[in-house]
User: Fold this.
Amino acid sequence: MAVAIVLAGATLTDKIAFAHGDVTPQPIDASELKQLGTEWLGENPYRGDPKAIAIGASGYNQNCARCHGLEAISGGIAPDLRYLELGKTGDEWFIERIRHGKKNSEGTTIMPAFEGVFSQEAMWAIRSFLESKHEE
Assistant:
């Protein structure tokens, strides 16, 4: 009996450990926002826009919170995005990271790239939400 419990626990643990790689991004409908075209911007065009913040909150909660934490309060798995620098410098870091993702020194993906998955409008909406949660 004890062997069966240990094996069941190992199987459950294995599924939890690999869950991040099996997550399907959820669509973010940013059609109500001003459309930005195909050229990537280096600065958030929706800063302080209540509609963008609401769209970004929904998109963040469905796609980012599992690693970066609810309300952008990290539980330690990924960076706490409330402390992301405001303004153009923070915008540049954010858009680079969300578009291209990040790999660790061994080449393992630790954050997937979302370019081609989310629109530029959706990405900037998420940034707007994060700015609304900013802390020093």
